[in-house]
Design a protein that fits this description.
Blueprint (H helix, E strand, L loop, with lengths): L1 H18 L27 H4 L4 E7 L7 E7 L4 E8 L4 E12 L4 E6 L3 E7 L2 E4 L16 E4 L1
Antiparallel strand pairs: 1-2, 1-8, 2-3, 3-4, 4-5, 5-6, 6-7, 7-8
Pfam families: NlpE
Protein name: Copper resistance protein NlpE
InterPro entries: Cu-R_lipoprotein_NlpE
């Protein structure tokens, strides 16, 4: 009988040990991490350091009172720019030069010259003109605000 008593006691002890609460290892609802929808920007791979951004970009931008504005932007590796805008069916042309300023962790170029103050988002072989607040232009004509690399 003594031979059966020792295994029975051990079995009961193991049973009680497995049934005890594990409250010390459980997190309260305040401590539980919840997944978020927040996506942190990749600041190591930017348009400035990952794309071949220098070059000549061209396009015809919409105009309120003319057929369009033939626009050429040249971005140089020394971070200078040349800008030309020719209003179609008019005798008006704007030319300006200056230094490129990079914004938004290297994804936006700010062209600020003597007469020019405009921002473009730098994409793969294109520049996307931004509005006065630095946001992408939305609506039916949004694709017309892209300058394509030549």
């Amino acid at each position: 009988m003594n031979k059966l008593l020792l295994p029975a006691i051990l079995s009961v002890c193991l049973m009680f040990a497995s049934c005890t609460s594990n409250t010390n290892n459980q997190k309260t609802t305040d401590e539980v991490s919840t997944p978020t929808d927040e996506v942190l920007p990749d600041t190591t791979h930017t348009s400035q350091n990952s794309l071949d951004w220098n070059g000549t970009y061209k396009g015809v931008i919409p105009c309120a009172d003319c057929p369009g504005i033939a626009t050429t932007v040249v971005l140089n590796t020394d971070e200078t720019f040349a800008y030309t805008a020719e209003y179609q069916n008019r005798n008006t042309k704007l030319k300006d030069t200056g230094k490129i300023m990079w914004h938004d962790h290297g994804s936006t170029v700010h062209l600020h010259g003597k007469e020019l103050d405009i921002k473009y988002k730098v994409g793969e072989n294109k520049l996307i003109q931004l509005d006065q607040e630095g946001k992408e232009i939305d609506g039916e004509l949004k694709d017309l605000y892209n300058l394509i690399k030549q």
